[in-house]
Specification:
Layout (H helix, E strand, L loop, with lengths): L3 E5 L18 H14 L3 E4 L8 H10 L5 E6 L6 H14 L4 E5 L5 H6 L6 H20 L4 E4 L4 E5 L13 E4 L3 H10 L2 E4 L4 H16 L6 E6 L2 E2 L3 H21 L11 H10 L4 E2 L3 E2 L1 H5 L8 E4 L1 H12 L5 E4 L4 H11 L1 H22 L1
Parallel strand pairs: 1-2, 1-14, 2-3, 3-4, 4-7, 7-8, 8-9, 9-14, 10-13
Antiparallel strand pairs: 5-6, 11-12, 12-13
């Protein structure tokens, strides 16, 4: 089965502890950042999306042009572009990158951010639209003949695309969202279901729910989970780094006169905050303080410890059936290099040992 690692790049340097300075698009930084992930041994890079950020399609196209092997995960919001057009855009990008693209469909957990782009649908209706959107997208990718579509949100007559994805039968589909409508769409379409960095108990429960939703459609799903690893030569050093990151985050918010306000509006945020309510430290190495600080926004939980301890913590999620880890740091470029040196090889080694042991036991049992 193996394990995969996804990193994350942004079009300029910024994090909770690093203020954004300079232009919104910094090509030199994107080039170095993408190449650092490739050299560090990551399998794929996520390019995230919001209603104010630079275009993800163009950022992936540029990052792919300055790398050779690494694959990409393009965050994409259904509802703002016709799915027939998106199908051609994504298939074209898949051709230019020689099959190095997957798409993470972000339905949107914040009314405020959706409305910046003119989307005033409610939460559940957004997921209904995503359902129709992804279904139509896949049909454009796989249909050999023009077809008509008359749905709730989209109509098309004679839809067809002469450009098809390099990857067969279509560009891989990543999907997230923990609400009941989200799980229904994930079960129907997701090749990979993406979790935020939850506790082992919550992650296990969500994996079970998604598997059940997929089984209703005769499908199986792979799983990805997101963390912000904080590594130290000793456990005490790693926890000291975590406390400094929290202090720096608070200081930066004050200096910029910025407050994120109340909790983020999503089921995923509610779940992160439920873990945080148990305390700053859950499952020995899961750190939740930053998730509570920012209202449960995005992947804001960390695994804290030595590389050995964090690798062992990741293996516990691997044992739940989660085989992809999306990791990024608070000093994004430097942490990418550190992960490639100290964490990725260790996790891969431990997973390989685990799989050899399982194979040996299976042979003995036979």
């Amino acid at each position: 089965m193996g394990v995969q690692f996804i990193g994350m790049i942004q079009p300029h340097e910024v994090s909770e502890t690093i203020p954004h300075t300079g232009p919104a698009v910094d090509p030199a930084y994107v080039r170095v950042f993408a190449q650092a992930h490739e050299h560090a041994g990551f399998d794929r890079i996520l390019v995230p999306a919001s209603a104010t950020s630079p275009d993800t399609l163009l950022t992936v196209a540029y990052a792919a042009s300055v790398t050779q092997r690494i694959h990409f995960l393009l965050a994409h919001r259904p509802g703002f572009v016709s799915p027939t057009l998106s199908a051609r855009q994504l298939a074209t990008l898949d051709n230019y990158t020689n099959g190095r693209v997957a798409v993470h469909y972000i339905t949107g957990g914040s009314d405020e951010d959706q409305q910046r782009d003119g989307d005033f649908l409610g939460h559940d209706e957004r997921y209904a639209r995503s359902d129709e959107y992804i279904g139509l997208l896949r049909r454009v990718w796989t249909s050999e003949q023009p077809f008509d579509h008359a749905g709730t949100y989209y109509q098309a007559k004679g839809a067809w695309s002469e450009v098809k994805p390099v990857q067969s039968p279509y560009v891989p589909i990543y999907f997230g969202g923990a609400s009941a409508p989200a799980l229904q769409v994930a079960g129907k379409y997701a090749d990979v279901y993406a979790l935020w960095g939850e506790s082992l108990a919550q992650a296990s429960d969500l994996v079970r729910q998604v598997r059940a939703a997929a089984a209703q459609h005769g499908r199986t799903v792979e799983f990805s989970i997101s963390f912000r690893p904080i590594l130290g030569a000793t456990e005490a050093e790693a926890w000291a780094k975590a406390e400094q990151i929290l202090e720096d985050t608070r200081r930066l918010k004050v200096s910029q006169g910025f407050s994120r306000g109340g909790p983020q509006q999503s089921e995923g945020a509610r779940r992160l905050l439920a873990d945080a309510a148990q305390g700053d430290r859950v499952d020995a190495h899961l750190w939740t303080a930053l998730a509570r600080e920012n209202g449960g926004r995005s992947n804001s939980t960390s695994l804290v410890g030595t590389p050995e301890q964090v690798a062992d913590a990741l293996l516990k999620y691997y044992d739940l059936g989660i085989t992809t880890f999306l990791i990024r740091g608070f000093d994004p470029l430097v942490d990418t290099i550190t992960y490639g040196r100290d964490l990725l090889p260790l996790v891969r080694q431990k997973v390989a040992e685990r799989e050899r042991e399982a194979e040996h036991l299976a042979l003995k049992a036979a």
